[in-house]
Structures are given as C-alpha cells and as structure tokens.
Amino acid sequence: MEARVNVITLAVSDLQRALEFYRDGLGLKSSGIIGTEFVGDEVFPPGAVAMFQLDGGLILAVWPRANLARDANLPLSAPSACEFSIGHVVGSREEVDAVLAQAAAAGATVTDAGRERPWGIYSGYFQDPDGHLWEILFNPQPDWSVPHL
Questions:
Q1: Quick check: is 146 in a domain?
Q2: Which value, to the nearest 10 degrees, does the dihedral of the CA atoms of residues 136, 137, 142, 144 take?
Q3: What is the total count of domains within the chain?
C-alpha cells in the first residue's frame, strides 16, 4: 500500500445539514449533493453524497451513516467522537481562534478553546454537527518530519 490518502468520508445523520455546515459555514467548496440518481436497491445503498475538494487533491466526503454502514457491510452503530480527529493546520494562534469561532458560528461545538499544549503547539477542538472531532492547530516550529519506522 502506498502512503497516501485520497478521500476521507465522514458518516453523517443529515446530509443537507452536513453540506450546509461545511460549505456555507466553513466555506469549503462543493458542487452540493450529487449522486441522487442512484436510488439504491436491496444490495446497494443510495448514492447521494456531498464532496469537498481540499488542498493537495484530498477529497472530504459526507455520506449518510446508514448508507456507509450498508456499503461496508457493517452493522449500523452509534457514532463516537473519540475514534479519531481531523487536523487542520493554520499559520498563527489568532487563526486557530478565528477558525474555532467560525466553526461555532456555523453550528459546531467547541470542545476545547485554543490553548498552548505542553508539546509546543497551540490548538483547540470542535465537533461538527455529527460529532466529528476537528483539531485546529498552529505549530510555531513547523518541522513536521515523521521519524522513519
């Protein structure tokens, strides 16, 4: 497997609400909900999804939770905010605070305001309307090199 990720799909309870949060609230670019012509059947789930093109070619997709579970052949389960976080790096402490405020104004819940962390970064967290955890962070020494495994 190559060391790259192309698409991150977030399971959501309300597709329209998720689209509005990410597009209208956070300002991510999207063509809106697509794939509505794929209505699903007894084998395949419906195809309605919203996608957002991010920097570096990464795509953020939001898809109804029940459809993702069905497509992956997994039982539908309750969401958990502590499974992972998505990190968004910004250029200053002020930008951390501004993005957290923007997310809150769009309907997110700020779970931890921007603050200095003992490992040298300034960051804060918010949860989107479906509970997905985002960390907004600034690293004053931006050497993000990962040790070789």
A1: no
A2: -60
A3: 2
pLDDT digits (tens, 9 = 90+) for 29-85: 999 999 999 999 988 899 999 999 999 999 999 999 999 999 998 899 888 888 889
Model's pTM, two decimal places?
0.86
Q: For the chain, where are the E strands, in sequence order?
A: 7-12, 33-34, 49-53, 59-64, 85-89, 109-116, 122-127, 133-138
Using DSSP bridges, classify how beta strands 59-64 and 7-12 pair: parallel, antiparallel or unpaired. parallel
Yes or no: say if 124 and 103 are a contact pair by the CB < 8 Å rule.
Answer: no
- Say whether both 22 and 46 belong to one domain: yes
pLDDT band at 145 (very low <50, low <70, confident <90, very high): low
127 touches 111 (CB < 8 A): yes
The answer to whether 80 touches 106, Cβ cutoff 8 Å, is no
Residues 64 and 20 in one domain: yes
